[in-house]
Amino acid sequence: MSDSSENTEGTGSVLLQDSGVDQSAQPTRSWLSRLYTGTGAFEVVGRRRFYYILTAAIVLVCLLSMVFRGFTLGIDFEGGTKIQVPADGGVTSEQVETVFTDTLGFGPEAVQTVGSGAAATVQVRSEALDAGQVDQVRLALFDAFQPVDSTGTASPNAISFSDVSETWGGQITQKALIALVVFLVIVSIYIAIRYERDMAIAALAALFFDLLVTAGVYSLVGFEVTPATVIGLLTILGFSLYDSVVVFDKVEENTRGILHLGRKTYAEQANLAVNQTLMRSINTTVIGVLPVLALMIVAVWLLGVGTLKDLALVQLVGMIVGAYSSIFFATPLLVSIKEKWGPVAAHTKKVLGKRAEAAKRVGSDTPVVAGSGTVPDAPVTPRVGSRPTGKRAKKRR
Length: 397
Known about the structure:
The longest helix has 38 residues. The protein starts with a strand and ends with a helix. The radius of gyration is 30 Å and the shape is elongated. The chain is an alpha+beta fold. Helix 8 runs parallel beside helix 10. A hairpin with a 4-residue loop joins strand 1 and strand 2. The protein has a 4-stranded antiparallel sheet with strand order 5-6-4-7.
């Protein structure tokens, strides 16, 4: 096997080729192996237009749902009466709804069964009831199902009623919005100082995307919005920001001093950073989702605690959406901002111009695409993931 070298003018580099080796016949690593090693084989930044279209489509669907479908607001926002009936004796939500309707002449707003086993209860949400209506419903439900209290004795007191004012939910929402504004201001200042302005813009855009899509999912699926949901939105912001900052830290490391180099563009180094942190982002998301799923199972099926369910549900949706935005939206947006103006834009044009000239000299027809990671400097290039060949590879063995 013979080795040959070729000097490429304008780049100041020496390209090594194995002229006696058929590179197309070399074995390639599996996509799982490339995902784990972070070799830059997955094109994210180079396909950013596709991800922009996908992101815009998701945002559009969420906006249309919020405008035309709206939200299913909980009793804390609309006010009303909440009734809880023990369901350990085989009581179903349909039976409770029938008794409620026959007693008062109108149906409840929502009826659902939460929990399992001895902790199972049927929860009824209706408009605000007066004292007389509450007594009528309590006696009717007791006569129909004979629920028992904590002492094991059948008693009407086993059926609980609670009145909720809509002002309490409004106060919680107002305080959460104030906390959100303060959080965004502090985060913007920190990222702008620690990294740079463009990264702060991209990170905030990803945060707003996470909030919008999470709210859109609640509107599409019809999940009930409670104060716990509003509070949970604040918790997912921290997760999304953490994931974006991890990727940005690697982007900063890979692109340090790139304006003084002529072989790689900012987009290619940013894409490499995404690949190098991709496995970490996936692992972080999976590790974060597993305890949230466990919390939902314990809260909904075992304990029947509605507050835990609402908090876990918004975290589950937010973590998944945050992982998508940090990988496929934040970094591509950062690259687009960089390549619009400033020294990065000029550097990208300079590098691509050198590659175009080199491609003409060697007679290559390979297209030059910013952020694609393809360098058409040599007539023979190994496929992504191919094992190394040549004299240096032999020495490693």
